[in-house]
Structures are given as C-alpha cells and as structure tokens.
Amino acid sequence: MSRTEHSHHAKPTELDPVIKRSRRYKKRNLLTSPGTLTYIGPDIELKTKIRRIQFNDHLFRNEPVKSLSECRPAENGEPVITWLDVDGIHETGLIEKLGKLYDLHPLLLEDIVNTEHKPKLEIYDDGYLFLTLKMLHVETESPICITSEHVSFVLGEKYLLSFQEELTDDIFTPVLNRLEASVGKTRRNGPDYLLFALMDVVVDNYFIVLEKLGDSLDYTEDQVIRGSEDLSLKELYALKRELTMARRQIWPLRDMINQLIREDNALIEKEAIPYYRDLYDHIMQVLDTIDSYRELLASLADVHLSTISNRMNSVMKTLTVFSAIFMPLTFIVGVYGMNFDYMPELKMRYGYFYVWGLMAVVTVGMIFYFKSKKWT
Amino acid sequence: MSRTEHSHHAKPTELDPVIKRSRRYKKRNLLTSPGTLTYIGPDIELKTKIRRIQFNDHLFRNEPVKSLSECRPAENGEPVITWLDVDGIHETGLIEKLGKLYDLHPLLLEDIVNTEHKPKLEIYDDGYLFLTLKMLHVETESPICITSEHVSFVLGEKYLLSFQEELTDDIFTPVLNRLEASVGKTRRNGPDYLLFALMDVVVDNYFIVLEKLGDSLDYTEDQVIRGSEDLSLKELYALKRELTMARRQIWPLRDMINQLIREDNALIEKEAIPYYRDLYDHIMQVLDTIDSYRELLASLADVHLSTISNRMNSVMKTLTVFSAIFMPLTFIVGVYGMNFDYMPELKMRYGYFYVWGLMAVVTVGMIFYFKSKKWT
Amino acid sequence: MSRTEHSHHAKPTELDPVIKRSRRYKKRNLLTSPGTLTYIGPDIELKTKIRRIQFNDHLFRNEPVKSLSECRPAENGEPVITWLDVDGIHETGLIEKLGKLYDLHPLLLEDIVNTEHKPKLEIYDDGYLFLTLKMLHVETESPICITSEHVSFVLGEKYLLSFQEELTDDIFTPVLNRLEASVGKTRRNGPDYLLFALMDVVVDNYFIVLEKLGDSLDYTEDQVIRGSEDLSLKELYALKRELTMARRQIWPLRDMINQLIREDNALIEKEAIPYYRDLYDHIMQVLDTIDSYRELLASLADVHLSTISNRMNSVMKTLTVFSAIFMPLTFIVGVYGMNFDYMPELKMRYGYFYVWGLMAVVTVGMIFYFKSKKWT
Amino acid sequence: MSRTEHSHHAKPTELDPVIKRSRRYKKRNLLTSPGTLTYIGPDIELKTKIRRIQFNDHLFRNEPVKSLSECRPAENGEPVITWLDVDGIHETGLIEKLGKLYDLHPLLLEDIVNTEHKPKLEIYDDGYLFLTLKMLHVETESPICITSEHVSFVLGEKYLLSFQEELTDDIFTPVLNRLEASVGKTRRNGPDYLLFALMDVVVDNYFIVLEKLGDSLDYTEDQVIRGSEDLSLKELYALKRELTMARRQIWPLRDMINQLIREDNALIEKEAIPYYRDLYDHIMQVLDTIDSYRELLASLADVHLSTISNRMNSVMKTLTVFSAIFMPLTFIVGVYGMNFDYMPELKMRYGYFYVWGLMAVVTVGMIFYFKSKKWT
Amino acid sequence: MSRTEHSHHAKPTELDPVIKRSRRYKKRNLLTSPGTLTYIGPDIELKTKIRRIQFNDHLFRNEPVKSLSECRPAENGEPVITWLDVDGIHETGLIEKLGKLYDLHPLLLEDIVNTEHKPKLEIYDDGYLFLTLKMLHVETESPICITSEHVSFVLGEKYLLSFQEELTDDIFTPVLNRLEASVGKTRRNGPDYLLFALMDVVVDNYFIVLEKLGDSLDYTEDQVIRGSEDLSLKELYALKRELTMARRQIWPLRDMINQLIREDNALIEKEAIPYYRDLYDHIMQVLDTIDSYRELLASLADVHLSTISNRMNSVMKTLTVFSAIFMPLTFIVGVYGMNFDYMPELKMRYGYFYVWGLMAVVTVGMIFYFKSKKWT
C-alpha cells in the first residue's frame, strides 16, 4: 500500500514527538439542504472498487462489479445471501445511486460518506438497519499515531452492504477468504452472522492497536521510572491524546451492540445473539483496558513531575554544598589579603600553614555537616 | 454590520489575551410581578425588523411587515404555512402584542426577551411549543472570543415564529433563499420541517465555531509543545473559558431534541423525525468534540507547567555550573593574594604558571563532572 | 437594620481576607425526646412579629397580630385566603402554640426553628405541605461573605404560613405591597400562587447574590490575569467557599420544585404549574452559573500557581545572570591580586587596561549569551 | 471508663500528628465453613453485660440478666415489649446461644460479632429485621482521631435486641433513662419507635463528632490562612483520613433508612415513618457537611502548597538581592586589590574615597532597581 | 510449587521498585473463526490434572481422572452430585472434548481458556450457567506485586465444573477437605452451595491480598509522614497500579453476584440465597476498602510532593543564609585588600581588630535577622 510507505518517509523526528492530528469537520455548504452527500475525507484518486459476493450453503460467487446494475439486490425468490463490499466512499454519486437501488434513506447515505461521523446504530422501519464504526490503524509506532477509517454497514434481510474508506487494503479479506474456503460457520448462517464476522475483524484489530499502545505505555513507564532526562510530558501527552481518541471512537460501540442484543430485532436471529454478546464482551475489555491505561498515564505524569522536582532539589543541593564550602574559605584567604600595617598573623613563621590547617578544618566540618543532613 | 466593525476597532492587544466577558443577569424589579417582560440585552437603536413568509407547494410570498396587523395568523381555511421572522427582541411592547395575537403564555414571552435564558423546550397544551437556543458567533479569533445570540421559536400547527437578537444580519437568510428557490424539501413540508431547517443552520454554525476553536487549540498546542516562552497559562485559560461557555450553551439542546423525538407530539410529524434524529447526532458530535478539546486543554496545561519546571531546572543548572567552576578558582587566586611573610610558592620561579595549571585542572575536572551528570 | 450596621463595624481588614464562618450545629440535649423544639440560631432580643393578611378578589386586610388567638385559621365557610407572616423563629413556645392551632406535626415545627436544616419539601397526608429554604444575603462584598436566613412555609388549602429569621427586615414586603396595590395576578389566585410569589422573591434574590459573586470573580480574574503580586490563593479560597456554601443551600431546591410540579398534588392547582416551572428554570440557571463560576475559579487557581512559578523563574534568572557576569570578573581581578614574585603581566605598561579590556569582552560575551537564551 | 483513661496516657505527641490506625480484617480460618462466628475486635476481659428491659404503657421492668434463660422472648400472650441490651460481643458462644433462643439466621450472628462489617440492613422473611451501624467516638482531639464502635439491632414484632462493643459505657443510657422516667413518646410506642430512638442517639452523636471535626478544620484553616510555618500537609492528611473514614461508616445508613421508609414493612408501623424520615434528613445533613468539609480541605491543601511556593519565592528574592548588591561591590574592591605596577587610580589622593562613592552609587542603584520590581 | 521459588530468584532489587507487569492480549489468528479455542497464558509443561468428586449425604468419592470417559456426567437417575475439578487450562483439546461431553457452547469454552477475560456471568437457556472470576495471589510483598489466576465455573443442575490455571497448587483443597470431613453444610446441599463455597474461598483470599496491600500502604504512609528521603513517588505509583489492577478484577463480581441473587434462577435454590448475599457483602467490603486505599494513596502523593517542596525550601534557606553572611564579610576584607596609596584605616594601630569587630557585628546582625524570620 502506497500510504504506509509514505508514512515511513515522513517519519517524525525525535525532536517533534507530537504529530499534528488533522481535524476534519463536517463543512456543509449552508445553501445545500440536509441530505445532500458531501465527502470530506482525504482526496483519493483511485476509483471505487465494488465486489459482489453471493453465497449460501452450497454456492459461492465472488465477482468484481463492473456496472452499477450488477449491484441490484437478488430477486426475492432466490435463496442466496448477497454481500456488496464497497471499497471507497469518495464517489458520492455512486453511493447515491446504490442508495436508490436498495431504497435507503438519504440521511443514511450522508452518514456513510461523512468520515467524521461518530459510530452509530440506526434501525429503520423499512426492514434494514444501519451501523457505522471506526477501523483503527496504527500509522506510526514511535511516537504512536492512530488513524481511523470510516466503516459502515447496511443489513437487510437477505443482503449486507459494507462500505469502507479507500485508505488501506480491503480489511475484510480474511472473512472473504474464510467464506470462500467454507471454514467456520460463516457460510451456513445469514447476513446477521456475516455482519458479526466483519465487526469481529474490526474489534480484533482494536486488540492489535491496544497492544501497540501498551508497548508505547510500557516504554514510557520505563523512561519515567528510570527518571530518564530525555523524556518530557509531551510524550505522555501524545500517548494520552491517542488513547482519548481511540476511546471516543470505540465507546459508542458499547451501546450499539447492547441495543442490537436487547431489542427484539427481526434482522438479528436468536442463534446469532451469543456471538454479538461475545463481541460486546470484547468491546468492554478494550474500553476497560484503555481506561486503565489512561489512569496509569495520569499517575505516570505525577511521577514524572516529582522526578523533575527531585532533580531540581539535587541541583540546588550541589550548589549549596559548593557555596557553603568555598564561601568561608574565600573569606579566610581574603582576611589575610588585607593590607593593614599591623596584622600579627602575617609575621608568624608558620602563619601560612596555620591558615591552611584552619581551612582544612572548616572544609571537613562542612562536609560532615552535609553528610549528617544526607545531602551528598 | 456595524457591530463586527466595532469589534475590529476594539481588537484586544497581545498583552491582554483575556477579554473581559460581560455577564448579563436577569435583574427583575422586585416590584413587578412574574410575567412582566424585561429586555436585558445590549442597547440597540435599530427598529425591530419583521418579515412574513407564506408558502406552500405552489406559492411563496415574502414581505416585510409594516403594521402589526399583518402579523395575524392565517385563517384556518387557507392552506399556507406562515413563518414570521422577527429580527430584534429589544422592543418588549411589540413582542407582547405579537404574543397576544398568537395567544401565547406570558412566561413564554418573558423567555423570548430574556437574552440570558438557558436553551429550553416547553410544550404547551394549547397546541404550540416553545424552543429557545443560542446562536454562537466567533467575535475575535486571536484570542478567541465567542458571543452568543438568543434565538427563540414558537411552533404552531400552521405557523412558525422565529425571534433573534438584532446583533448580526438575519442568520436565517440561507433557509429563506432555499425556500424561495424551491431548493430541497423545505417547501414541500410543514412548519416542523422548517423549524428543523432553521435549527440546522444554528447547529451547522456550531461546527464553524468548533473549527475556529480547534484552530486556536492547534496553535496553543503548537506553542506548548515547542515550549514557547511567550505562552502563559492565561491563554489556555481564555480558551478553556470559551469552551466552557460554548458547552453550557449547547448542552441543553441534547435533551431538548431528544424530548422532541421521543414524546408523541402532534406538532412534529413522523416524516420529520429522522431529520431531528440527524440534528441530535450533530449536536452529540459537537459536544463530544468540545469535551475532547477540554480534556486535551487540561493535559496541555500540565505539559506547560512541566515545561516551566524544566526551564527552571535548566536555569538552576547554569547557575550551579558557573558557581562550581568559579568558586574554587576564586579561592585559589585568593590564597596567593595573602600577604604572609613566608609563603614558599610565591618565591618559586614558575609559581604563577603552576597556579594557572592547577586552575586549568580544576576547571577541566569540574566540566567533566558536570558532563557526566549531563548538566551541560 | 441594626445588624447590617454591626457588620460595618466589624468589617474585615485586608490582612485577613477570609472571614471565619461560624458553624451552627443541631445540638439537641440527648435527654429530650425527638420533636422537642430547640432554637439554635443567634440570640435575638426582638419579639416575634406576626402579621395576618387576609385577601380575596375584593378584599384585603393586613393587621399585625397581637394575641395568638388572632392567628386562628379562617372558618371553612369564609371565602378568604389567610397568610400568616411570622418574622422571628427564636420564641419556640410561640411556634409550638401556632403549630397546635394549625394542627401541624411536631417534627415539622422542629424543622422550622432548626436554622441549620437543609432545604426540604415534605407533603403531609393531612392536607398541607411543608417547605423550607434559605434566603441568601451578601453580608460583606470585599471579601465576599454570604449569610443565609432560614425561611419556611406551610401551605394549606386556604392558608399559607411563612416563617423567617429575625435577621433582616421582612423580605416579603414587596409581595405584600403588590398584594395591597392589587398589582399582578397575586390576589386573583390561591395560596399556591402566593407561595410561588414568595419563593420567587427568594430566588430573585439569588440572582443578586450571584451578581455580587460574579463581580468578585471578575475582580479576582483581573488580579490573576494581570499577575498581581498582592493576590494570594486565599482570596480564591474564600470565594470558592462562598460558592460551595451557596450551592449547597440552593441545590436541594431543584428536586423540591420538581417534585411539586410532577406529583399530582391537590394543593398546587394546574394553573400555577407554569409558574413553578418558571421558578425551576431560574433555579437551574442559578446552579448552572454557580457551577461555571466554580470551574473558572479552579482554572484561575492553576493560572495563579503558574504565575508564581514564572515569577520564581524570573527571580532565578536575575540571580544567574548576575552571578554569571560577576563571578568571572571577580576571578580575573583575583588573579592579578596574587603576590607571586614573577608575574609578567603586572610589569606591562598597559596591563591594567588590558585587563579592563578582557573584562569588557567577558561581560559583553555573557550578555550576548543570555540574550540569545532570551533571559534578559 | 478504663479505656478513655488509657487513651490519655497514650496521647500522641505533637511530633507525630498522624496516629496509626489499626486495620482489622475478617480473617476467617479457611477450614471453617461460612456461618462460624469469629470475633475480631480488640481483646476485652470484661464479661458481657446483658440487661433485660420490659415495658408497656403501665409497666417498666429493668433487670440485669444473670442466666441466659432470662433472655427468652416473652410469651406471645403477654402485652409487653422486651428490649435486650447486650453490652459486649466478644463472647461468641453467648451470642450464638442468644441467636438460637430467638431463632436467628447464623449469618446474621456472624455479622453481629464481625466488628469490621459495614453498616447494613437485612430484612428476613421470618418476621425480623437486622440492622448494623457504627457509633463514632472522638478518641483524641488534636490531632483528631475517631474510633468506631460496632452496634447491631434485631427488631422483632415484640422485641428489640441491641448489641454493642464493650468499649465505652452503655451508649443507650439516655434512652433507658427517658424510658424509665416515662418522658416522651418512647414508652407509648412499639419496638419500632424504640429502634428509632436508639438510632437517633447514634446519629445525634454524629453531630458531636462533626462539631469536633469542624473545630479541627477551623483550626487548620486558620493555620493555613495565616501561613503558619508549623503546619504541614500531614495534618491536612490526617484530618482528611478521619473524614473519609467517617463518611464510609455513615454513607450506607442513607440507603438503609430509605429502604426502611419506602418498603412496605410489617415491622415499622405507619406512625413511626415520620420519625424515620426525620432520621434520614439528619443523616443527609451529616453527609452533606462531611462532603463540604472534604471539599474545603482539598482547597486548603492547594492554598498551603501555594503558600510554600510563595515562601520559596521570598527566600530566592532575598538571596538574589544579597548577591546582586555584594557581587558588584566585591568585584570593585577586587579591582583595586590588583598589583599592577601602573594603576593610576591608586595614586590619586582621594581614590579610596572615590571608590567608596562609586560603591554607594552602585548599592543605591541596585536597591532602587529591586524596589521598582517590588522585591524588597 | 516451582513458580513461587522462581519468583524468589528473580526478586526485584530495591533500585527498581516497579516490576514490569506483562500484558497478555487476546491475539486470535484473524483467519480462525470465532469460537476457536486459543490458550494465551504462560507456557506450562505439566499435564492437566482432573479430579472427579461425587458426593451426597451418605457418599463421598474422590478420584483422579485418567481417561476422559470418566468425566461423563452422572446418569440422570443417580442421586449424586458431581464436581469435576480441572487444574490446568492450557490443553485446549481436552477442554474442547470436555465441553462436548457436557454439551457446552463453544464461546463459553473460549472464555474458559482466555486467561485475559474479565470476570463475567452468563446464564444459558440450556440449564447451566457460566461464571468466571480471578483468584488473586500476592507474588512479592515488597514491592507488592499481585498476580491473577483465571478461574471458571460451569454450574448444572447436578454437576459443577471448576477450571483453574496450573499456576499454583489446587486452590480448592480446603473445600475438598471440608467436604471429605463432612464438616459444615457443604455436603448436605446441592452444587449451588458448592459453587458458593468455592467462590467464598476466592473472596476470602481477596481479604488476605487486601491485608498485604494494607501493610504496604501502612509502610508507605509511614515513610511519607516521616518524610523519608528514600521514598519516591514511584513506590506510590507501584502500589496504586496494583490497587487499580485488583479493583478491575474484583469490580465485575459485584454485578455478577447481584444478578445471581435477583434473577429468578432455577439453578440457585432459595436456601442458598442468604449465602450468596453474604458473599456480595464481602465483595462490597473489599471494593470499599480498595477505594479508600486509593483515596489515601492520592492524598499521600500530595503530602509527598509538599515534603519535597519543603525540603527544597530548607535547602534554599541554607544557601541564602550562608550567602548573606559571607558575602558582606568577603566584601569587607576585600575593601582592606585594596592597594590605594592613601587608606587611613590601614595605618591605624588596631585597624585590623576593628575590622574583626565590624565583621562580628555584621555576622551577629545577620543571624538575628534570619532568626527573626525563623529561617534557622
């Protein structure tokens, strides 16, 4: 993938540990009426890739779609499940036409292409549900930077539409392969189980992201505990920002999956419920781990600040010890640098050596004093 | 608009990054009974501008209102929707008369002119609902300062009244233009959809405010991370204050829109619900973003404080290194400035140069010592 | 009023910005059984003043009560509303007798005289409700000090009893005047509307207190932002304490009014509900403002601490610059103060001036060094 | 009481303001099965004292119990109420036998003797309820130390059992005296009112503890505000720890009393409900006050830290002023201590006095400089 | 046990108080379908030990299982309760086969071997429930390090399966012994009571862990209060991390046990409910104690930081006192080291002694000045 390579070229230097995160807002022209599709993600030149997979117990067809008419839903009679895997959401015209083929609400289409939309679940009365969430990718590891990819699903009785940004390779390839190889339960079940399998890929990926975040936290903890001079709160800040971002993207999933489980829903069959419950458990575990990371990070920041204070203390002690030893000595030698006519000590035979002795006594006394205070 | 120009004149200097925010309180004369209208916003000399728009599928009339009698609701038989766009709420007498024409509750009128009232929704049994919210404007960008404009709506079965402060141009012009050009769904639908369209303008504006806040946060983050000397916590404080203010103004909308959706409401038709749900999503996204900004700001303040501490550390180290090098040297030259009669070194041929050698050794030793401690 | 004058005498000096807040506890003699009345407020010598107001649409009677028998509730047949305005709650015997006349629960009477009791609402099955809240007064403005006055109401079907501490003038005078002048709706309505009107006076007073708190916050904000030396966290603390106190006194009102609105209550008629809802909105606005004040105050404390740190930084820099300039110079002059027999420089014709040149170079070099570090 | 005396002997010195709080855990032998009684409180040699009080409207009997058989519940027919006041819970065998006499659940008995058990309410189907709470005592006042005493009640239809630790005198003596003197409602009512009266004693005691805590807070506040040098965060910490502890012991009472009021409970008669509601109010007031103390304490800690910082600032300023005045002077006298052959100033008649003049100018200049910076 | 020994060898040195906690993630191969068992715990070579215990009132059989067929559930007719105690969960094949014998859901089996799974309760419609929790062990005491062991239960009508990691000895030995010795109620009751007894062992162990944490906290508190130099925030951090970890592992138990009690559950009989309620109380007590430890720890960190600041203050004072005494003295001796031709004092007979007198006066003055400021 060209993009990951690019990120290697633009690898951030050590001097600038915090990568600028570009914010993308929903900037809709105020003159357009609501329901007008506006793609606001990064510019991409590749054309949208669509793949139509049809399968049931016996059958498996997987063809790239060339004209929009091939995307048409299967006739009612045909006992196959259709999965339309749309890779790229920047061609809003195409999305709009697809929406009309499947008779989807225009606001739903707007959410598919709005890459900044929060994860959400919407159950429509017309017999389909809409679900959008974020795939997370670790873009760079040190300093860690996580990017999100906007993924949406429309689940009908006999079909599943999946939409993803054209940022990375198709993230659903593993499920596709499993489907083709007829491994597991994926093919024996309906589109509800397929939706679970695809979401499971996304959530499993969260664990990978979590592991990288954990590695980054371990490294930072190590730096803080060893009192490394190079570390600054900026790195803790960068890590915290990524955790906050990841949490915001994952948090809404909790309620969404819960709603899917609780609500009596014609689209999710009873057999699929335990799998969705399992998914819910995994999401809870991800959120729980993120929260404990955030808590540890906050404590680490305190430790770091106290380390700085301690270091300052030690600098001050060094200064004080030096001053307290050399100030009296300098004073003593100053005394015998005075030019008074009558200074008895100056005439003494061993006066010079007596002064050295005095200074030795003062120095040793000072050192003992500071030793007793445990300053050296 | 005269006001925005004014704010350019009074542009805050860089030395005073925090603009004083004037607080306006509901100061009701204790002798007046509740329900007495009291306008407490800034003094404005312009006269209230009222515009009556009447429309249905075929028809569109838009006339400025000259006498109050033109504001009268349409007869029951007439199949048009009336939108009364009132620009200016400082003439309380006029508002009161309007209220009587439409038979509105006096406490409702009080809330229309009370520019400090929090956003709220009130559903009256008499077949109309009242809704008030805040339009936010970015008054100055650096330091960022957000002002709010009090906007109220009364939605009846066949009419919509909108009230706004006479601070800026009419903020609803885009909707008016769309209505006239017959673009979008606005004209085919009832006053409930019109209300949505007007609120959508306000919420879309929140995203613009959010973007400016985000720019300001980016700039501040950049300053903090680069450890800029010029930055002070005051700027973080100013930014936080604006975020807090914006959040307070937007937060109640969440419950208001939710209530509109959930409650079985004769005034909001079923077809409009998805649009209100969309609005709700956008409000949630705004609030969510504000919260993450606030969280980042709090972390930035910590980073800033640790930067100050680190800088102090480095100042102290400089002082200590200087003291630790020059104190011993000054002591040594002091020794040979003593006037003892008998000091053997003074008589030595190269004594002076030996002393220079000694001092060089001491200096180099000190430098090595501090290098080993990584202080220089 | 004698008390306010007194507080002028005892005006706190600037050196002691935090006035000691005297805490008053419910100290009940352990031997008395519950329900025994104990007044714990400040000692007051004035006698309790009672005023009986009777009114309906046509009629208005307002007489000071001389003997307890005049306090008797009106006969059932008489179509008047009785308001008994009791000013002073320190004569527990009198309160007890009043309670018997109106057949009130002894625990209710205990709460009327317990000036430390939190605001609460209690609906009794016997056809009356009890409500107690706090009137807030600004006692001193700089430093701000808020005192609370214990106010209680008993609302029956045909009567309203109001009790207040004998601290200030009768706070209900405005309502009394309005009632007499027949201004507003107060006289056309029942005791439920009268209760609203009285509580509205209390809540309106909260806005006045809020304004003073806001002024105090503005002043403090100004001090903090200008980095005033005189300010200390103590003033922030005093302000925070008053805010905390005010919040504690007002917070329970939220639930109380809400309960009055929601619960199907024979004592509050349907027509009065919108007024209570209005009251609820005002209370929410007060609480909301207090919360935002508290939040700003917390941020101000952080700004103040960082200002102190910055000031320390600047002190340290001054010290370091002085040391770094004069230590090398003192060392140099020390060198040529040595008494070695052979020191070639001492014999040089312009040696003295060369040394001055050397010292000038060192000084200029140091100044450039610190300029480059932006320390001066 | 021997214990209070003891605590006078062991009075903590001023050097160690934080008394070690001994933690007592439920250490059950892993081999014993649940329901086995284990007393874990301090070792006590006194024998358990049991008192049987029987009363109704006419009758009052109060006898110390000598053999267990006297503890037997009254026959069903007899119209008396039995109160068994058990003072001492360390003899588990005795408790176990009592439990069998009254047919109590073994887990209930376990909770009576487990002095570390949290306050809880348990309503048993067999017609009795179990309630355990903590009596708080102020053990030492400065530094404040609060100890808790484990108190349990079993309320049956016709009897009340009360259990307390043998730490202090019988805390229920006031109620007993009131009962004997036939003062108040205690004797006319059933065991539910008696339970209220006993709990009221405990809660009234909380107010006494609260007052001592308030005194301690006042004293600390005073120290912090006056910037006393002697104070350290340790004292704030000790105070906070006691507040935290008290809050943990009282907090569960809130839900317990609430449950007693709400639930339709055969054991608590309707007439007693207002008294329990009164108790609930008092508990809320205690908790509310504790929370505000904790909040103030947190602010005080901040004030204290800023005081330390300010003091450091002032130390640094002193040092800097001294250095900035004496370093230039020392440099000047060093210049004229040099031994150059040709130094014109040394030959001048009034050179020495000119130098004094120069030094006076430098000193005065420095003092003005620091005065302008407000450092002195 | 080999592992505990190992931990003695790897005992952390005092220089590195924070042991690296290894994080274990659920890393599932993306190609495997959900429900595939993956053991992710540490590698263990021991074979899984299984023990089949069968018992009822009269009978007790306890045999190690040699072939899987012995694990088969008892026939329906046989009136015995089977407890299968599986010690070791790393052999996923074996777990899978066991799951088939008892007809368990594959996702349940996945949770048994996923040692990172959070505690959870799942009630299956097929007449069994699944429950997983964490046994906590104190691995090292100073610095404290807690490890968790993954424990799972499957409760059927007539059987109980228990699974534990092969890390320590069988933790359920005490219950087994009690069962064999027919002590207590364990044998007279069904598998629901047995489940309680086993969970009770786990929860009792929490108290032991809590005690060690309390000891560690006591030690740290002592260090902080005595202002020990050796202590750093790192130790507080390590302690906090362990508390956070323990809390996360125990917290979910609260809801789990609550759900067991509330829900009408065929598997838990009414007689067992009080025991589960007792368990719930103990869990609440553990959580409550952990929370109060965390709160104290946070306060201790503040105390520690203020101790550091105070120490810095005292260092600075020492430096300032030294400087303020010796700088004037050095200046004075410098004055009389000047070489002016005309310096009257130098000619005075006792000039030298006068200077000593002057210096004594300056020194004493300084000392008095600093004494008055309480700096020495």
TrEMBL record, chains A, B, C, D, E:
Localization per Swiss-Prot or TrEMBL: Cell membrane; Membrane
Lineage of producing organism: Bacteria, Pseudomonadati, Bacteroidota, Cytophagia, Cytophagales
Gene (name only): corA
Cited function: Mediates influx of magnesium ions.
Species this protein is from: Dyadobacter pollutisoli
Predominant place of localization: membrane
Domain of life where this protein originates: Bacteria
Annotated transmembrane regions: 319-338, 350-370
Membership in a protein family: Belongs to the CorA metal ion transporter (MIT) (TC 1.A.35) family.
A cellular component term, taken from the record's GO annotations: plasma membrane
DNA damage found in the keyword field: no
Keywords: Cell membrane, Ion transport, Magnesium, Membrane, Transmembrane, Transmembrane helix, Transport
Topology term for the membrane: Multi-pass membrane protein
Entry GO MF terms: cobalt ion binding; cobalt ion transmembrane transporter activity; magnesium ion binding; magnesium ion transmembrane transporter activity
Name of the protein this chain belongs to: Magnesium transport protein CorA
